[in-house]
Each structure stands twice: as C-alpha cells, then as structure tokens.
Amino acid sequence: MSSPGKTRLVFLGPPGAGKGTQAASIADKLGVPHVSTGDILRAAVKADSPLGREAHRYMNAGQLVPDELVNRMVAERLTQADCTNGFLLDGFPRTLVQGRALEEALNKMKTALDAVISFDVSRQELIRRLTGRRACPECGANYHVESLKPKIEGICDRCGAKLVQRADDSLETVENRLEVYQRETADLIDYYRGQNLLKKVPGDLAIEEVQRRVLEALE
Length: 219
Ligand code: AP5
Known about the structure:
The chain is of the alpha/beta class. It has a domain of 148 residues: Rossmann fold (3-Layer(aba) Sandwich), CATH 3.40.50.300. 47% of the residues lie in helices and 13% in strands. The chain has 8 helices and 7 strands. It has a 5-stranded parallel sheet with strand order 2-3-1-4-7, with helices on both faces. A two-stranded antiparallel sheet has the order 5-6. α1 crosses α8 and α2 packs across α3. The relative contact order is 0.19.
C-alpha cells in the first residue's frame, strides 16, 4: 500500500482500544515518531523525575494527569526535530482543554492536524484486553496472555526482558479508567467531528485488519 499523505495524526480511543499497538506499526510505516503520552509519563516515573513524581499518583489511580503538565510536555516534544514532517500522537489529547492546547501549539508551528482516528471497541473486550495485557518494562512492547503471546512465556521477544502487568491494569483501576474516558473525552470527540477531522475505525477486529482499516481511512 502506498504511504498516505496524512502525517499529523491523533489516535483516540478508550484504554485498551489498541492505540499503542496500532501506533507503533503505523508510525513506522509513515516514517513519523510515535509520541505516546503514557510512555513518556511512565519513563518519567521510572526516572523519578519531578514530572514522574507528580504524575505517579494520578496514573496508579487511573486518573488523568493534570492538563497543564501534559500540555507542556507535549508542546515541548512536538518542537523536537523528528516531528518536523509529522507525528503520531497516541493518548493525547484526551480532554477538550488538551485539544485546544494542541491546536494552539500547532498554530504556533504554522501547521495543523491532518486526521484523528478514533477506535471503537466494546467494554467487555476492553476489559479482557487490559487485564490480560503484559508489557515490557524495558522497550515498552505490549503482549496479551491469550491473543498476542510472546515466543517464550513471560519474556519480551524484542529485548529479552521479563514481562510485567502494568500497575494500572488491575480490574478495579481499569474500570475507573474507562469511566474517566467516558466522562472526559466525549466533548473532544464532538470537537474533532465538528472540525471534520474524525475518522472512526472498528478496533475489535484482528490487529492486521485494524491496521488495514486505519491506512484506508488515511488515504
Ligand atoms: P496510556 O498508556 O496512554 O493508557 P491508555 O490510554 O489507558 O491506553 P492503553 O495503553 O491502556 O491502551 P491502548 O489503547 O494503547 O491499547 P494497547 O495497544 O496497549 O496512559 C496511562 C496513564 O497515563 C493514564 O491513565 C493517565 O493517568 C496518564 N496519561 C496518559 N496520557 C494522558 C493525557 N493525555 N492526559 C492526562 N493523563 C494522561 O492494547 C491493549 C491490549 O490489547 C494489549 O495486550 C494488546 O496486545 C491487545 N490488543 C490490541 N489490539 C488488539 C486487537 N485488535 N485484538 C486483540 N488484542 C488486541
């Protein structure tokens, strides 16, 4: 498939919708950086930086990190050289305040979003995916105990590290994250629909089929 011309993208969807899984391969195909706010925040927590110390308690409770912290973090990231020809934002924005801050940051850079992909998946499937997810603490690769097993159980195919369950993937925290998503992100979806940027993709199909649908939506 030829490379779509759209390269300033946002992947939107509830926790477990497959944003990270799809973003990793699609960013690679498009030759743009995959900018995941969840990954940046987890790296800050691991490094015990001031941002990480602040973000930690929100993330573990399944709450959103305050808008001003995340907005600043993303605005800085987007000015880095590798974002000049595009980027794929995974997990940002997720509130209307963040959406407006992103628009402002892009205006300053004299550019704008090309498209927003929104993944739809049933609640039951989201819970199955998140509670069964295993993640690599070293390289960030994601697996699933049933649907995406590593070659050797419990070991990352990419870097050989021992896989772990994310602290926010317990059933109780997952239910809270889904509630937060419904509450905080509905207005943002309407905002992008109003700007004619929103493209909905069914996220409950096989990983390869979802990827095909995303690339089709970007044509
Ligand atoms: P973040 O890491 O962004 O978490 P999330 O949005 O809750 O999304 P996930 O990473 O859980 O899910 P995903 O959609 O990427 O699914 P994945 O591909 O992994 O954020 C974590 C926390 O950081 C937040 O709770 C918040 O505290 C903070 N934060 C981050 N951004 C923020 C922001 N902008 N503002 C404020 N706070 C912020 O897939 C899940 C599982 O399903 C995997 O096991 C995968 O293998 C499997 N899977 C994927 N696709 C399929 C498929 N098609 N079929 C079967 N299985 C599949």
